[in-house]
Structures are given as C-alpha cells and as structure tokens.
Amino acid sequence: MTENIVYYLWGDESYLIDQKVQEIISAVEKENGEEPEIVPVDADEMSQLELGQTLDFSPLFAFGRVVVIKKPAWLGKSSRKAKKIEESLQVLQDYFQHDHHGQVLIIISAEHNATNPVTKLLDKKAQVINIKPLAPRELEEWCKAGLSRRNVRIVPAALKRIVNSGQDMYYLVNLIEKLSLIYAGESVGINEIEEQLDSRQEVKVFKLTDALLTCNLKASLMAYRQLQEQGEHHLLLLHMITRQFLSLSKVKFYHETGYSSGKISELTSQKDFVVKKMLDKAPQFSSNRIRIIFEKLLETDASFKNESKDPSILMEALIVELCS
Does domain 204-323 have CATH number 1.20.272.10? Predict the structure, then answer.
C-alpha cells in the first residue's frame, strides 16, 4: 500500500497560504525531529520528465522533504494549456501509485477550477484546504494586534480605514511596519493613515499591477477604469506597469541564479514582502513570456508617442494582451 501525503491549498490570499505552508513544514519537523529539506518547484519551466524526476523520492532516505509547487499554470482554465495539463496529470497519477514515505507534496493554486483534470485528481487524492480570506472583523483584530505588538495606538476609524483599504495582507504587514517606524508610542488617526496610503503612486496603481501579475483580466480592466476616473495619466500607468514587470524579471533572475530571498531584497532594493510576492508570481512567467511582455510595453509606449490613437484604447488593448 502506498503512503503519500499531499496537500492541495487554494485561495487568493498569499500571506495566509504561506502561513499554512509554514505550519505544515513545522509539523513535519516536529514529527521527524529535524528540519526537512524544502524544495520549491517551478513546474511551468519543467518538462513532464523533469517534473517526474523532481517529485521522485526514495523512502530509504533518513531525512524528510517538503516539495512546494506554487500556482502552476496547469491548474488553470486555459484550453491552450491542454497538453501541459495532460502531461502534469500523468506525472501526478504516477506519483500517487508509488510510495513516497518521508516526502510531503504541497500544491497551491489561486482558484479551484473544478473542470480541470488535475484538480479532479487532487480532490480525490490530496488533502484539499481552501484558504479563505479573513472576515472583516478577523482582519481588524489581526491588524490591531500587529499594531499593538509594535507599540502603535490607533483610533477605531483609522483601523477601519486600513481594513477597508482593499490591500492584501502582505501589503498590510508592510504598512504596519511603516506605521511602527513613524508613530511608535503615538496615537494614529485617520489623517495619518490616509497620508500613508496615498503617499506614493504605487499605492494608487497597486490593484492594477497586482491584477496584471495574476493575469486577471476582469480585475485589471476594472482597476484601470477606476484609475482613469481618478485622472491618472496613461504614461504614468504605463511607467508603473513596466516597473512592476522589471522588478518581477529581476527577482526571477536572481532566484533562478540561486540567491536567497534576503539577498534578492538587498540586490533589488525591494522590501522583503515585495520580493516574496514576486517569487509567488514568478512561476507563472517564463523567460520568453517576460520578453514578449516587454516588447508589448515598448510597442505601446511608441504608439503613445507616434500615433494619434486614443490612449485609453491602447491601454486597454495592452491590458488584454498582458492577461492573455
């Protein structure tokens, strides 16, 4: 009888998913009495054979191993990935037929696509856990506790503004750290929160760039149209999108070179939470895809300067291409 421990985690709050992964790793370490080997896998960059070889693990080894596959494209809905989906399905079917005692496999996706054959297999064979976002009250308590630990007092209205900002939890971690540096020992009101939320253009376009990195067309177009209504200039938005993908390409390059996330943060002058988010998104972008993206960005920039087309139409066309 085969023994395989496989977790299928899905949800769109990366912070909570990463917390769950760490919880699983800690449980493995406690059970084995020693820290397991952690193997992050960029499955989209691997062939069927390479993925199978990576997952192969002999129970004769004395130490444990945790393999983490984050948001592979073959767990999505795209029919253009049909071949990759079939290949990945074959690899996992073979995996479940053999004994990999001592190894834990964690597979992560942003959504649960019930029609995907790989998802159907995981629903039957893996421990499926839907990592749901915190409810507003839970998020409020989480923010309040984080501020309290950092000796920051906050008025109820300001706390509500943070909770209702629409930002993900990694962003909120960074915001709380920033508040602790500026207002430690002081009371923070709604004006101070508004000042920090709107102090940089990155905050205003965060939803757009984040939606683009997850290839969410609906959310990207909605965020862009909201920015239009706020009067943001199309050249500024193009600049911010380009900068985001440039950051992604740098993080991906340094990660594939073998640098730790801490070293990548140092080399790119990015916050730790930004690097973690980029590492989470990077597996979805092959080197060829990044090259094509920069070509599209350059084409759009040239069109703005050399053509008389409506900038709004050019931007929406760009967003559609980036999400395709």
Answer: yes
CB distance 193 to 162 below 8 Å: yes
Mean pLDDT throughout 235-255?
Answer: 88
5-130 falls under which CATH superfamily? P-loop containing nucleotide triphosphate hydrolases (3.40.50.300)
Mean pLDDT, the chain, rounded, equals 86
To the question of pTM greater than 0.85 for the whole model, the response is no
How far apart (Å, rounded) are the C-alpha atoms in residues 84 and 78?
A: 10
10-43 core/surface letters (b: 16 or more CB in 10 A; e: else): bbebbbbbbebbeebbeebeeeeeeebeeeebbb
The two structure tokens encoding residue 281: 């998104």
* Residues 188, 154 contacting (CB under 8 angstroms): yes
User: In this structure, what token pair is assigned to residue 85?
Assistant: 């989906």
Give Cβ neighbours of residue 181 (< 8 Å, ≥ 6 apart).
Answer: none
pLDDT at 297: 92
Residue 1 confidence (pLDDT): 41
Three-state SS annotation for 213-263: HCCCHHHHHHHHHHHHHCCCCHHHHHHHHHHHHHHHHHHHHHHHHCCCHHH
Domain ranges of the chain: 5-130, 136-198, 204-323
Domain covering 136-198: architecture: Orthogonal Bundle (1.10)
Type of residue numbered 175: L
Q: What is the pLDDT of residues 84-126, one digit of tens each?
A: 899 999 999 999 998 888 899 999 998 899 999 999 999 999 9
Whether 215 contacts 231, CB under 8 Å: no
Tokens of 258: 């073998």
The Cα–Cα gap between 242 and 229 comes to 21
- The values of phi and psi at residue 308, to 5°, are -100, 20
DSSP notation for 101-168: TTEEEEEEESS--TTSHHHHHHHHHSEEEE-PPPPHHHHHHHHHHHHHHTT-EE-HHHHHHHHTT---
Cβ neighbours, 10 Å, residue 185: 9
